[in-house]
Design brief:
The chain is α/β, with parallel strands linked by helices and about 260 residues long. It folds into 2 domains: about 5-120 and about 195-255, 3-Layer(aba) Sandwich (Rossmann fold); about 125-185, no CATH class. It is about 45% helix and about 20% strand. The protein has helices spanning about 40-45, 70-80, 95-105, 125-140, 145-155, 160-165, 170-175, 180-190, 195-200, 215-230, 245-255, and strands spanning about 5, 10-20, 25, 50-55, 85-90, 110-115, 205-210, 230-235. The protein has an 8-stranded mixed β-sheet with strand order 1-2-4-3-5-6-7-8, sandwiched between helices. Strand 1 and strand 2 (about 10-20) form a beta hairpin. The two termini are about 30 Å apart.
Length: about 260
Amino acid sequence: MDKKTISRDGTELAYTRAGQGPAVILVSGAMSTGSTVAPLAGLLADRFTVLRYDRRGRGESGDTAPYAVEREVEDLAALVDAAGGEAALYGVSSGGALVLRAAADGLPVRRVAVYETPFAVDEEAAAERATYTARLTEALARGRRGDAVELFLRLTGLAEEMIQGARRAPMWAGMEAIAPTLAYDDAVMGDGRVPRERLASVGVPVLGVAGGASAPWLREAVRAVAEAVPQGTYRTLEGQTHMVDPNVLAPVLAEFFGQ
């Protein structure tokens, strides 16, 4: 990250800016930093001014207690200011929930796109997320960062043997380092259900995208988001999963943001 801006509460945010044209801000999901969306940024930079940043508590960005979702919305407001006062937003996974919240709160954004926002689509899924929230809160309160990461990986559906393999991998230390931000993403997701009332107040076009090879409930969740906003559109990318190929996603976003 080669640039810095300051959020309303004084938190320093690290970001990178590339390309030229209308501004687009990319927002990563849980257990990730701005570098996660770097390949996508590179593909969009020929048509847009693309900003990617480390969300608070991650990478080169700072953090200020206590956390509140409103602080992350203010972070996005600072990035929009840095982009020139208006921008389109793209968020992946729980980052999608954050950009939808920012749009509903009235930030000066012109369009919003999200990829596989993992909202619960039934009561069983909502109950599972509530259990996750309780166990995550306990693990972090006790300083058990590794356990917190395990809880998150299980929530995503990762097989137990893969989780234990990850624990032995070099990347584990980095995952534990940002484990406290799992609570931030959990807060962004609210009670886990699609926030239909809040989404009804979003006054800009919204594109919801999901992978055709992802779990059916993820496609259902994104479709529900698109249906809840007044100007929503849903699209499936055939053959894609939650780890979407930037080369497949970029043309879809470019078309939408270029309108």
